[in-house]
Design brief:
This protein is mainly beta and about 230 residues long. It contains two helices and 25 strands.
Length: about 230
């Protein structure tokens, strides 16, 4: 065992070790730096769970999913395989998450949110599930917010309840989304407006021929704007 001196503030009162804790040699790599392999981490039931993550009972988690520190998953939630839930994420009990989903730091998914496969949710993206919130007053049914396959949500965007974000759509950072977003649509701004189209790889579609198939969706969104 290797004894490493730390600040006294980490020692419990009355501890005679005076700020010393024991660390296993396997926690260090060849260069003497912490490897992280045994620091607050564990693997269980086919998925990775950080020791500082809280996963309640009756949660379904697919193989290969990684759940990092200070994540809290409530009972009843379903998380697919090969997902990555970064630090400080919160998942309520009726949330459904597909496979290969990335959820960056500081994201909370509330009851009513459903996430399909291959979705990217940027850091501190905000979801809501009550249009007229009041303290300790809850709707009988939470509206369904659906993130379709492959869509990407930029950092700090806000998604109002009951909306559908279309397949492979791209939401700009900081956007406030108040209407449904069509498949492959690119929206940004406050409030978010349809600004163009993107392909599955995220590149902008500039050719009129390539975007022609999206004309009905454009007309529909423009009609809602005038209303």
């Amino acid at each position: 065992m290797i004894t490493v001196k730390t600040s006294n503030r980490f020692s419990p009162p009355g501890n005679s070790s005076k700020g010393r804790r024991k660390i296993k040699p396997s926690m260090f790599n060849k260069n003497g730096k912490a490897s992280g392999k045994e620091i607050n981490r564990k693997v269980a039931a086919g998925y990775f769970q950080h020791d500082d993550a809280l996963i309640e009972k009756n949660v379904q988690i697919g193989d290969g999913t990684r759940i990092w520190a200070f994540t809290h998953v409530l009972a009843g939630a379903v998380i697919g395989g090969d997902c990555n839930l970064c630090d400080h994420t919160f998942i309520e009990g009726s949330v459904r998450i597909g496979d290969r989903v990335t959820i960056k730091c500081g994201v909370s998914l509330w009851d009513g949110v459903e996430v399909e496969n291959d979705v990217f949710i940027g850091p501190h993206a905000t979801f809501t599930n009550d249009l007229r919130p009041r303290s300790r007053i809850y709707p009988a049914v939470f509206p369904r917010t659906l993130l379709r396959e492959g869509c990407s949500l930029g950092a700090n965007c806000t998604i109002l309840p009951g909306l559908t974000i279309g397949r492979w759509a791209l939401i700009g950072a900081g956007a406030v989304v108040t209407h449904d977003v069509p498949d492959f649509g690119q929206v940004f701004g406050v409030p978010a407006r349809l600004r163009g189209w993107v392909c599955r790889c995220g590149n902008k579609l500039t050719s009129p021929i390539m975007a022609a198939g999206f004309a009905p969706a454009v007309a529909s969104m423009n009609k809602r704007k005038k209303a």
